[in-house]
Write a structure and sequence with these properties.
Length: 212
């Protein structure tokens, strides 16, 4: 919810800033900030208060909302009017595909790191216990309670936190790469005949809901 609310609140603010500054000066720092908030998850621990997580999510939503609308509007403004519908469909498809791929990549990284980290703690455990513990930290805690192995539950928590830290680092790096792409490509995108149209708030809201 903080991410969605942040994205919706930032979208109308972004277009005002773009009119006063420029697309590049608004979106590049915003996407960089989004990368920093994603990397900030690498500093969270098992006992981190929920409020800090919510603050990170809110800042992340605000940052993403400052990027989605203006960049989409800039892309569509470079198309002839008769191609605007097709362009909007393509940008929405790319955004949705990117969300799915991002979730898949982040989840895969975390899963691989989690399994490698918890593996040493499974030595001597029965085969079924090892199989369940490798699935996820939740499964590991459940089976640890069933077989009365509290050390396994602690190992699962530690492995999950470590996997989250590694995954956050990779996602932050990929997002910074996206900011670099904007830095390189946006000067050409800013050469247009008219002002940037209003951003697609509905699309920004849809993307925010997808992230939630």
């Amino acid at each position: 919810m903080p991410t969605a609310c942040g994205a919706l609140a930032a979208a109308p603010l972004a277009v005002r800033l773009v009119r006063r500054l420029s697309l590049r000066l608004v979106t590049v720092p915003a996407l960089t900030m989004a990368a920093l908030t994603m990397g900030g998850y690498g500093f969270l621990g098992l006992h981190t208060p929920l409020v800090w997580i919510e603050i990170l999510l809110l800042i992340q939503g605000l940052s993403i909302g400052m990027v989605i609308g203006p960049v989409t509007a800039a892309l569509l403004s470079n198309l002839p009017l008769e191609q605007a519908g097709a362009g909007s469909a393509v940008t929405n498809t790319v955004r949705q595909t990117g969300s799915v791929i991002g979730i898949a990549v982040g989840g895969t990284i975390m899963s691989i790191v989690y399994r490698r980290t918890i593996e040493p703690s499974l030595e001597g455990a029965p085969g079924p216990v090892q199989d369940q513990a490798r699935v996820s930290a939740e499964q590991a805690r459940h089976v640890a309670t069933a077989v009365h192995r509290p050390a396994l539950a602690q190992a699962a928590d530690d492995a999950f936190i470590h996997a989250m830290h590694v995954g956050a680092g990779w996602i932050a790096a990929i997002t910074l790469l996206g900011a670099a792409v904007l830095l390189i490509t946006l000067p050409a995108a800013e050469k247009k005949k008219g002002p940037i149209p209003e951003p697609d708030y509905e699309a920004a809201g849809s993307s925010a809901r997808d992230r939630v």
